């Protein structure tokens, strides 16, 4: 605490990301990273980069990247916004759209950065409880609000909504912005991108950190009506003209240009997820049906914190959230087939699991 | 304008950076970029980068970069903050320190992004006029305030303050944060970094975009008392956990590690600046004494806008600001010796300059 801080800074509770251990020989299933490296086209973009160009500022509008995304998603480039990871895109969106009189609505259990943005920008918000099976019921969001945000598939549950459910909400919720955070959508859920030309108030946010294997490069984007995108540009250009460096722009373009690699790696992760789910169920876990690159699972009687500690002593990291209602769940990122075999084998060595049945 | 925007967004006037032309064969003296590429160590860092690492998130704390900067400036690593360009560092600093009851004080003529941040965060501010010679008189800032910010050397004037003048201010201004924006300090001015252990309320902000030739990579930093740095970290961690990608961190470290290249290129720019100043004075310009990588100059009788247009028709870009008081000045970035010769030769072809004397 310092007398020099603005008053509001004293009350901030910053987001705490999953641990990034500085040692190797760890199986890291705690931050939903892709187990495969980025496309060889990304490697080529980096290794053939003409470093002399770095003396100049990058294109502040990331025009080539926006055009590449517009082509890929079949939208106009003025319907595309890009930022330094989807976290920065989300931050600007909260400022641009959610500082309203009525409260922002979001699920009780979802990406925990949403609450942090609300505190940062002094946004009034309300949590809407999930169903007992962790499902989001969008009919509960049909009441006066200053905005709605949810992740689809949701995190850390991995559960997806249908496009029909989202369209049902948009049909009645016409006066505030609805943000669908699709960080994990490429692993099997339905994207709402197809709705942006039909509804002026939906903003879809995606990231290169998961399915595109570029967490280390920090690129995220939003797709929506041109007026929403203009609102984001106004905030961005009042904050930082050049959020994406030259290599971030180039590597993101290269990643989009390798559709085959994207399909292959994504399908591999989906297959491994299904295998992992079956294995976990066979040793006493309940697993929430996942459309993401992680599974959210709870053991029949072993506490989540204890399981996390047990795995950690065997150099396997998973994510555990201590908040009530999910304190016995683990969020387990889907790694390579070998990593997931090692993970399952490790669990089978737990004295209370090995004596099951 | 959109009904979906938060009210405050409607009144934003975003910052407009200098033009980044998409064609080549232009002599670009309009955005204060370094005419030399980055150090060969930067090139090596990029071309030897193991791209597979990009699947993981970068170190959210940029620990290695902070340690490298701490060693270089002989401070502790908890006195170092890093961000996505000094623009992002400034944005977080405005939020962390300047949202106060009393107004923020800044020079009438300085980096024009400061006003933009104030509008973004709803900060009350007052402009303090410069002297007729564009000097900043810090005794005028000794009155109740919620913070003080100025660039040293100032932009777009290029004029520097002495360390004694800054220390004089700090001796009396003890209750609010004083930010010294040293984007251009490496081109001949005195840095205030030596004051951060003596005064708890000074924050020095620098960038890799100018003297380190890394504008394309987006890295800036702040040095100050650990409590001020903690305030910045709180804002950063409530906004975006990972603002610096892996390559931004690696290239910035490589740039700091090549002191010889830094000294040689910086000295070359200083020599070319002095040569350019003499040449401009010989053809009827008044040039403000500069400690930066640009000169701020006005012709004895030719209007600034006309000169900018004339240069542009000859594929030379310089920056012109239309604001009253400096509307007849040009801000001219110092390029290579060849570029500056071409620039001077071009001016000598102007009919009203060639007939001088």
From TrEMBL, chains A, B:
Names of required cofactors: pyridoxal 5'-phosphate
EC top class named in words: transferase
SUPFAM superfamilies from the UniProt entry: PLP-dependent transferases (SSF53383)
Keyword field contains Amino-acid biosynthesis: yes
Domain (Aminotransferase class I/classII large): residue spans on this chain: 25-345
UniProt keyword annotations, A-Z: Amino-acid biosynthesis, Aminotransferase, Histidine biosynthesis, Pyridoxal phosphate, Transferase
Gene3D superfamilies linked to this entry: Aspartate Aminotransferase, domain 1, Type I PLP-dependent aspartate aminotransferase-like (Major domain)
Superkingdom per UniProt: Bacteria
UniProt xrefs under PROSITE patterns: AA_TRANSFER_CLASS_2 (PS00599)
Modified residues (N6-(pyridoxal phosphate)lysine): 210
InterPro entries, per the entry: Aminotrans_II_pyridoxalP_BS (IPR001917), Aminotransferase_I/II_large (IPR004839), HisP_aminotrans (IPR005861), HistidinolP_aminotransfase (IPR050106), PyrdxlP-dep_Trfase (IPR015424), PyrdxlP-dep_Trfase_major (IPR015421), PyrdxlP-dep_Trfase_small (IPR015422)
Catalytic activity: L-histidinol phosphate + 2-oxoglutarate = 3-(imidazol-4-yl)-2-oxopropyl phosphate + L-glutamate
Keyword Oxidoreductase: no
Subunit and interaction comment: Homodimer.
Family: Belongs to the class-II pyridoxal-phosphate-dependent aminotransferase family. Histidinol-phosphate aminotransferase subfamily.
PANTHER family: HISTIDINOL-PHOSPHATE AMINOTRANSFERASE, HISTIDINOL-PHOSPHATE AMINOTRANSFERASE 2
Record protein name field: Histidinol-phosphate aminotransferase
Organism: Neptunomonas phycophila
């Amino acid at each position: 605490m310092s007398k020099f801080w603005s008053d509001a800074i004293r009350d901030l509770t910053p987001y705490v990301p999953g641990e990034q251990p500085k040692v190797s020989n760890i199986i890291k299933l705690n931050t939903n990273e892709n187990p495969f490296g980025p496309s060889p086209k990304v490697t080529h973009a980096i290794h053939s980069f003409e470093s002399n160009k770095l003396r100049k500022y990058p294109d502040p509008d990331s025009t080539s990247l926006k055009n590449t995304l517009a082509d890929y998603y079949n939208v106009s480039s003025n319907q595309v916004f890009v930022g330094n990871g989807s976290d920065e895109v989300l931050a600007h969106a909260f400022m641009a759209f959610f500082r309203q009189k009525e409260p922002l609505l979001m699920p009780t259990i979802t990406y925990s950065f949403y609450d942090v943005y609300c505190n940062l920008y002094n946004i009034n918000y309300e949590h809407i409880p999930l169903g007992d099976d962790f499902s989001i019921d969008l009919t509960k969001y049909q009441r006066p609000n200053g905005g709605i945000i949810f992740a689809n598939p949701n995190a850390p549950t991995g559960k997806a909504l249908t496009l029909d459910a989202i369209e049902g909400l948009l049909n009645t919720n016409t006066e505030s912005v609805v943000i669908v955070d699709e960080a994990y959508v490429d692993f099997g859920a339905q994207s709402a991108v197809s709705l942006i030309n039909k509804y002026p108030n939906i903003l879809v946010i995606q990231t290169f950190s998961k399915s595109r294997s570029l967490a280390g490069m920090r690129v995220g984007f939003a797709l929506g009506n041109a007026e929403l995108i203009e609102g984001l540009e106004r905030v961005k250009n009042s904050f930082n003209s050049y959020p994406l460096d030259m290599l971030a722009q180039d590597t993101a373009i290269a990643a989009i240009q390798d559709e085959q690699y994207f399909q292959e790696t994504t399908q591999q992760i989906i297959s491994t997820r299904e295998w992992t789910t079956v294995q976990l169920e066979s040793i006493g876990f309940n697993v929430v049906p996942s459309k993401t690159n992680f599974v959210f699972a709870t053991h029949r009687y072993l506490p989540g914190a204890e399981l996390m500690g047990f795995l950690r002593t065997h150099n396997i990291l998973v994510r555990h959230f201590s908040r009530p209602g999910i304190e016995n769940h683990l969020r387990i990122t889907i790694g390579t087939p070998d990593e997931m075999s090692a993970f399952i084998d490790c669990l089978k060595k737990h004295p209370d699991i090995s004596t099951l049945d």
